[in-house]
Amino acid sequence: MPLKAPTTTPSTAATTSGNDTSMVDTDSQVVTMGQLQEVVNQLTNNNTILKEQLNGIGALKVKLPLVKCFAGEKSRLKGFLAQMSFKVQQEGAKLATSIDQVVYAGLFLLGRALKWFKPYLTKI
Questions:
Q1: Do residues 32 and 40 make contact, with C-beta atoms less than 8 angstroms apart?
Q2: Which tens digit of pLDDT belongs to each residue from 44-82?
Q3: By the 8 A CB rule, do 31 and 4 touch?
Q4: Beta-strand (E) ranges in the chain?
Q5: pTM, whole model, 2 decimals?
């Protein structure tokens, strides 16, 4: 028989028997604190299992190839920015702030682009 949650109507009364407190309603169905604790424990366990399953799904995401370093060629800029956008989205929580994202993008710069970026990197 499923547990019936206690109601807060005037006909509900709390009783104490030993170390266990019970709620009794007009249907005379008793739900003990121990039973409620079991339900809470089951919900907590189910929540943990669900989170693990969701994390497992995230681990199976499509892995993007490494971003090719950018040395400042104007013809490659749009492609580099698109790759970085996808990579930042994929990294998600690892790059929580905008500063983290900018520094991460700076790791893929070479030559002229790195020379231009260096003063910004030292200010961060």
A1: no
A2: 888 888 877 777 666 556 677 788 999 999 999 999 999
A3: yes
A4: 13-17, 20-24, 30-32
A5: 0.48
